[in-house]
Amino acid sequence: MENQKRNLVISTMFQQAGHATGIALGWGLGIALITYLFGLIVSRNLASFLVSLQALPDIASSILNILLMAIFLVTPYTDFKWAIQNGISRKTLWQGRILSLFLMTLVVWFIAQLVGLMNTPFDLASAWHSLLWYFGFSLTMMAIGNGFALLNRRWKWIVGIGLPTACLVLLMMLAYSLVRLIPALSASGVFKSIIISNITGQVILVTGWVILVIYLIIVYALARFFNNKIQLRRD
153, 151, 138: which is closest to 105 by C-alpha? Predict the structure, then answer.
């Protein structure tokens, strides 16, 4: 019974995603095509028009990427209300949504790889890295969306404006610190020794992977924690 409800969550999410994808691709590709046709009418350059058409697969891939992030950012509370109405527990809802996330991410990533083959040859290392980035962004959007589902409309506005602003200020402060720090390090020869040292490069690479794994674990835990705390509200 629980497996049936989990599969129901997955199938429902894919139906919703398919409907949204059809609308988004229709509008996005339609506007792009109309723009290209208008350029053809004005310039009467058929060769340029045919070259422009080659960008349509990239546009479609970009739309799918954006839609993947948006789905898990804006739907958590709607999915929760639907689950409550259909007698689906938070645990089953979480299982269905996280499996949907992995499956949708794989589909979008695979399409992006196919589109990329039109311009560059396949590279296993790059494909593997991009897949990790895709999962990282998807999980991040799910965690943020689940967190926002806990807030009423007023706090959504407060957090939605205040949090990005605080992050922007922190990034500007970090960039300003690096601008002052990098010349000093360069003058002391530290950068040169870091670049020359293969051991240091390997340490940096391993550290980067460790940080990524820790980040994914934290984001996954936050997404699940927020999922378990969602409540019906009046706003």
Answer: 138
